[in-house]
Fold:
Amino acid sequence: MATSADLAVRLSGVGKSFRLYQEQTGSLRNRLTGLGRTRYREFPALTDIDLEVPRGTMLGIIGPNGSGKSTLLRVIARVYRPTSGRVETQGRVSALLELGAGFHHELSGRENIRLNAAIMGIGDDRVRSLLDDIVAMADIGEFIDSPVEVYSTGMRARLGFSIAVHLDPEILLVDETIAVGDLRFYEKSMEQFDRMVAGGTTVLLVSHSLGLIERKADLALWLEHGRVAALGDPASVVGRYIDHYTGGEPLDPYDATLENSDALFVESRAGDGCAYSGGECTVRVRVDSWSETTGLQVNFVSHHGPLPYESSVEVPLGAVGVESGELAVVLPVVPLPPGQYAVEVVLIGSTEGRSLRTPILVYPDLSDAAPAGHLVMPLEIAQGDVQRG
Amino acid sequence: MGEVTISTADRRGPFEEWIETWRHRELMAHMLRRELRTQYNRSLLGWAWSLINPLTTLLIYSVVFGVILSGGDAVPRGAAGIQSFPLFLFSALVAWNVFSTVSTEVMQSFAGSLQLRNRIYFPAGCQVLVSVVSSLVVLAVEVAVLAVAFLVATPVHLALLGLVPIVVLAALLGFGVGLFLSVPNVRYRDVGYLYGVFLRFFFFLTPIIYPMSILEGKEIAGLSLDTTIRLNPLTHYVDAIRRVTYMHEWPPAKLWAIMFTISLAVALVGWTSFARQAPDATEGR
Structure:
């Protein structure tokens, strides 16, 4: 046996390329008129991937859109055959590659559970004993006997997830960026991953949530243009990823508007120049002299200019009483959905009315599993009378 | 611990692909049950449709060719002195329907399975095998109607048992053709449309609504029609099914051998081409 006993997944030199046809329409005429010559180019979605995932670990996979994360999961799930190299898996594989896993839309939830079990080679007897658990976790009640096509997005996601985790996979592949639903369920599913990993299941999780990967994963893989950019300890991989996207390359469109950016820094748990959506961040401002400045205003600016709400935080400097040097302004909440913004600091009272700008990259995090709208509103829920400070 | 699965760029051969498909026979049994149960989903008449469809076709052709364009004497006299155009037509129509339904179903079901196969792995051969069996179950209703019609109209004869192997051989031929077209149909949707046109054309090139005897001495552009139509492989299946039903005679060994060879060869070629291309057709979106 080629796989050593403690490895669940091993990829050696795996490549996958797709043919991109020049003309999108799959018409026979194009082929015939081209005299047998089909015009396409090979697009390498994955190149030379080497990866070993020990049994019972959680591997977090990160990378920008189009970097090959989903293709990698599909190759491991055997949905795609590699174009080169070798993929070995040891144990039953369950995959949540798309919303609603392997659903047949005309079938009821119950029949879909049976179909998915049959695909994974699990008999009807075993399914019958699991059915209640699956339905309970998916929280879809009497909808279990309705066709899946009438389900809401959240219900599909929950049922797909519930099926995938209950069919006792030894290897679970999850594309969290598309396959997992609402926040409440998201947390439930994370707990489930923890339990499964503790029980010896190997989980490969594609996620945009860097904080999650950092906290939960045992191993992180960063893909860039279909190649392994980094593989190893999650904290260091995530750190390098953030550095790459904030330090290495200037972020459009703000680099043109930067003024004295060396005098303005943003830092947070997500790293320098970044913040988690809904999380806190610290803005550091350094000027030669504060003597003329009576206050600070902090704004967030989006692609379309200043955000259309009162985003400023005014800090009266008299209370701080500094003459020179660096000031740190702590923003308890970055109320923005994930994306690229700039932080603008206006020095009030200075004769020129100086302002400083620096880019800030806002990452999605647990509190923002399904971003919608223009602002993130943090909530705190307490039982009984709300304490007002 | 679970078994090791290896996936590489090397293609599985047709035999390995068959083994891999067969390994999933419990899945296929499940899919078949599901397919039969949902065959007539959301239809009031349900399974009656598999009866209504052939009967309607039979009625139309009987009225058009038996009454309006009454051929009268052109209809050959069958066993026990029957001379019935509807029965003459129906027998051939069943063989034709088995071939055309199975080939079309195989081709379309493969395209239909891609959505699921893009999310979860199972061998490409599962869906096409299931579709052959499920369309045969539906067609069995038609074959049974045919058998009953002849049992009522003519004395009981053992040759009628020949219906079963003939239907199976016609289905095998349809399976091979459908397999051959499955992957091209995913890449170029024209293939499916072209095949529909081809079937309509071919229907009249097969002696279904006319007897072979009508062709004697006729020619088009110097080609003897009689010889030309005999080159059509389906002519043999139609000939055989007419013999066991209309003529009450067991087909000669030579005819069996021809059908057996054609069906097996086409099915093997179809499977080989399918096994080579189908596993990669998931991304043919």
